[in-house]
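Bench log, entry 3. Co-assembly request; chain sequences pasted below exactly as received.
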Amino acid sequence: MPAARVIARLDVKGPNLVKGIHLEGLRVMGDPQQFARRYYAEGADEILYVDIVASLYGRNNILEVVRRTAEAVFVPMTVAGGLRSVADVRDALRSGADKVAINTAAVARPELIREVSEAFGSQCMVLSIQTKKIGPDRWEAYTDNGRERTALDALDWARRGVELGAGELLITSVDREGTQKGMDLEFLRKVTALVDVPVIAGGGAGTPEHACRAITEAGADAVAVASMLHYGKHTVGEIKARLAQADVPVRSSA
Amino acid sequence: MSARRPVVPRPVVIVDYGRGNLWSVCQAVAAVGGEPRLSAEPAEVRAAEQLVLPGVGAFGDAMAGLRARGLDEAVRAFAATGRPLLGVCLGMQLLLEASSEFGHHPGLGLIAGRVDRLPAPAAGARQKIPNVGWCRLEPAAGGAPWAESLFAAVKPGDFAYFVHSYAAHPADPRHRLAEIDFGGAPVAAAITAGPITGCQFHPEKSGEVGLAILRAFVARA
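Structure output for the full assembly:
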């Protein structure tokens, strides 16, 4: 099986890398490209760009950031935020992205998942699901950075998304996001047992140990990490070292 | 190891037949000292010093895209000159004679052999189709040695980034350059025949390992 992946997630607002807590309360961190280059050099297996204001066609749009990043970053890139149509996805792929992650537009019109996977292959179509625990064994899917409820059961939505053609799931726990207190292993265990596509665990990893547990204890194929990298608390290399220690195959850093 | 950049960038023609994202390939070629030129012109392809044949999507559709532009004959004519040719991902599969993807489709026939679906993973295995992700490159048993190839700077066990559901089966085992272990089955990761090389993985997305392969390609006279 392919190596477990450590994905550096960069939330972008206009020209800036930002980071918040519970996907709110933003703090400007700097030039996203500089961060992307650093994480690439440290051995990140993938870069995930999230346009948190979904300004696909505004000034300083996310695709321009992706295009310039592709000049010096030679690992797969995923773009999320504001993609609404097959044409939007095509533009993202032409800008150097390899995959897109879609949440809001897929909730609004689930057929988009099928359209994107048929046009570009299921490996391009990552379904992004933001989860909030709403009761024992119950999670609801959210959109708009955890602000909007969907009334969809997150597990049902995950299964339906895969049936429609999603080739990968990006799970972000709204409860844990930005807290650095650990990932939602309970939900991750359920979703990885339910679907047979790769699952990216996101939200809440504050230490390499947290990231490792999402893979070793909850069956995730990849972890998306942000805060602990951006604040310089830990490096991609430290996360990989922890995974290797747990006998998880990882790509050795370049 | 040929890490030195040529003083004058070498023009590298990248065949543009409307199938896939070429921005990243261009950036990677530029990063290792090449001068990428996208072209859909058969005359330009024939006259290229070095040629990259990229591609994503389905085999039959890609061949149709090449034929519609007269590029299938142009790539064959280029290959006949003995100048360096690199096929990437689906572009590697197109180098072979035929594929069973969605029917039977003839390929460019530059390397004897065929393309078939990845072997079905055993029940409960964690191998999946499509095979997406970072896999270890290993020399192919009885295959082409790495020392004289584009893999001269690659170490066995280095990782490369794959996205594929089909795999190449060169008829001559000596044309196998590198393999991955796909659930116990060796699957072609790279093939080579003289100045022609094909990579199933994406060198432009495989970090420094991929760049080392592209650097060796660009440095080939």
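The interface with chain B takes residues 1-3, 5, 40, 43, 45, 67, 70-72, 74-76, 93-98, 121-123, 167-168, 196-198, 221, 251-252, 254 of chain A (CB under 8 Å). The mean pLDDT of chain A is 92.
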